[in-house]
Fold:
Amino acid sequence: MDKKAAGLTRRQLLGTAATAGIAAAGSAQSPARAGEPIRIGFAMSLTGPGAGAGKMMLVGREIWKDEINAKGGLLGRPVQFVYYDDQSNPGNVPGLYAKLIDLDRVDLLCSSFGTNQIAPAMPIVMAKNMVYMGLFGTGVNDTFRYDRYFQILPNGPEGNRSLSLGFFEAARTINPVPRTVALAGEDTEFGQNVLAGARANVARLGLQVVYDRNFPASTVDHTPVVRAIQSARPDLVFVASYPVGSVGMVRAINETGFTPQIFGGAMIGLSFTAIKAQLGPLLNGIVINENYVPEPSMKFPGIDVFLEQYQSRAKAAGTDPLGFWSPFAYAELQILGQAVTAVGAIDQARIADYMHRTPFRTIVGDVKFGPDGEWEKSRILFVQYRDIRGDDVGQFRQPGKAVILYPPALKTGDLIHPFTRARTQ
Structure:
């Protein structure tokens, strides 16, 4: 996920406070009367290219709302959502958040899904001094340094390095240890940032880089990219890509018959159910980062019950049938709800202070925020796909299909290598 919204620089984002939301800074919220709803506002990508993830996350949030209201709400008041479709367009976000704050007068704020949609709202939120819960952002607060921003993706304080660390830690278990690596990434901010983190990890491990290039995000045929990598004869191949590039690289690896010791990386999209069904057995042996997989070590309290509820709603909602990212949308509201309950009021400063100093129990595990609102410690998973047969998405509900290699505390299996062997097991 890109660190800045597409087409909007950080300076332009800050400028939106003057054009789309500076009025929010001067508006005052009237005191709530007992029994009035607590209104949680957000934008969400419900149409456009981000709709698949957006609809999935909306279902996760709605499950939390229904549950909390069944228990009497927050502070004895029902919870109500106020949300708008941002159409997957970052340019729509500032105006929507100005409306949520200044006209709808919501009590609490969450973000849309992804870095591109989170960042444009930051100047508006900061002008109003409201707590802002981010949903799957990478490095959003690196520039803003806003002390009331918190986000649920488990990147940790060094987000770029975390997206490759587990890959190289898994490689270190090979005997003899691999000596050479190829780095390939899309020529986008995401690709560049992830490869920058990968280079730092490679330097620490003393690996020799024999290939290090970007390829255009518009690439249709990835075979020439793979053949160029193959000619460098690397032991390891690490790729940083979005869904189209991820699928293209997997298909090109298969078509060329190239078999390094390990192949994978930060390949966004391979965790999407539709792409899993599309690629099927071609995923076998690939090592990628993940956030949740149904392995025994991920059985956090409440996660199975939540996923049952999500999956029972998914068809009617027209969204991802597995929903393995949706628990994070539920968990962010668990955190916000726990903070509001502990503070006993809708007090933005006190809520933010409580969230900075308090560890939280959630369905995605224990969460403690660092000073920048990121997780205090990274918990990005690296998994290896195995024993995938056909295109039945139901098989991904089973353990053993995405075996956790890293981090050690959640590990459920050892790396199978080389890639040729991993492809058949």
